[in-house]
Amino acid sequence: MIQIKSPREIELMAAAGEIVGRTHVEIVAPLVRAGTSTREIDQAIRDFARGEGGELLFLNYHGFPAHSCISVNEEVVHGIPGSRVLKDGDLVSVDIGVRKDGFCGDSARTYEVGEVNEVGRKVFDCCMRSLAAGIALAKPGVRLSDLCGAIEAVIRADGLGLVEKYVGHGIGREMHEEPQVPNFVGPTFDRFDPELRTGMVLAIEPMVNSGSGDVKTLRDGWTVVTIDGGVSSHCEHTVAVTEAGPRILTLAPGETWAY
Ligand code: MG
Ligand code: MG
User: Is 185 left (phi over 0), alpha (psi -120 to 50) or beta?
Assistant: First the structure.
């Protein structure tokens, strides 16, 4: 069942989302540079989010051993922060989930370390444009499959790899609620294709690869990598469906969505 949030609950979600947005802008963005280890970034995320009263949702989630997911280059999602040191040219996706006052926010952003090559920039740009296409349709009366299809259309038009194995999701008191939000129109929509309504909140999160969209999981049990070694980008926002249209809940204060 899809949980409909009241206006008051949306404001609580916005407060949780704001911690996520601020963590990205104030903590992660300045730290993502050559010479920083992904563990240092993870610890800074932990310290800041906790200081703001946020509970980090990924820690111990099905046993996940860190506070954030940091996925570098060929890593798609669920990268475990550790001793890997960032270097010039890396494309780094950082995923952060926080709960505050009973409600969750979830957002991944991709960062460029120094000068990223043209392939990496193209993948990142496509991922952001596909996310924008999905966000634009988070409006009452839109079929979920139309939102998902808009994401898919951007990625297919660019001829890049669409990761089908992992999907976006409803979000609220729990990080993962119904409905699933795939980045393509798959067969599940034959059975269940809800119309979006005011008060639904979705985490929209395309993953785009430079080559094949196929992925595999490393032996650490978590890190998902491209099957062909191609580079990947993951971009996600938590978005409320409101009467006035899409409302992105995981921006930092004063930050605007201009993609
Ligand atoms: Mg996420
Ligand atoms: Mg998510």
Answer: beta
